[in-house]
Amino acid sequence: MSQKDPCQKQACEIQKCLQANNYVESKCEAVLREMRKCCARYPKGRSICCSGFEKEEREREKFKAASKGIPPPPQ
């Protein structure tokens, strides 16, 4: 039996908010923040709903490192 995704509730709230606000992300900042908090509570890969947020975080880290002159890690 598979476990329920721990951040599924927040993911659904994001969808509801976006639909209610014609997909204007700026109107859903609060629910997006809650999703990021939920994703931060679990190890990477634990929540499939968090995969996009994990990718966003990796991109942000790459940008920070590049702005400090630190070369990206080898892939």
Protein model, in words:
With 75 residues, the protein is mainly α. The chain has helices at residues 8-20, 29-41, 51-67. Helices cover 57% and strands 0% of the residues. Helix 1 runs antiparallel to helix 2 (29-41). It is flat. This is Cx9C motif-containing protein 4. Keywords: Disulfide bond, Mitochondrion. One of its GO terms (cellular component) is mitochondrial intermembrane space. Disulfide bonds join 7-38, 17-28, 39-50.
Short recap of the structure:
The protein has three helices and no strands.
Set out the fold topology.
Blueprint: H1 8-20, H2 29-41, H3 51-67
Q: Top keywords for this entry?
A:
75 residues, mainly alpha, 3 helices
Mean pLDDT: 85
What is the number of helices?
3
Strand content: under 5%
Radius of gyration in whole Å, from Cα? 15 Å
Q: What is the approximate shape? A: flat
**N-C termini distance:** 34 Å
- Work out the number of β strands: 0
Biggest beta sheet attributes: none
Output the structural class.
mainly alpha
- Spell the H/E element sequence: HHH
Unreliable sequence segments: none
Question: Percent helix among the residues?
Answer: 55-70%
Disulfide bonds: 7-38, 17-28, 39-50
Family: Belongs to the CMC4 family.
Keywords: Disulfide bond, Mitochondrion
Organism: Apteryx owenii (Little spotted kiwi)
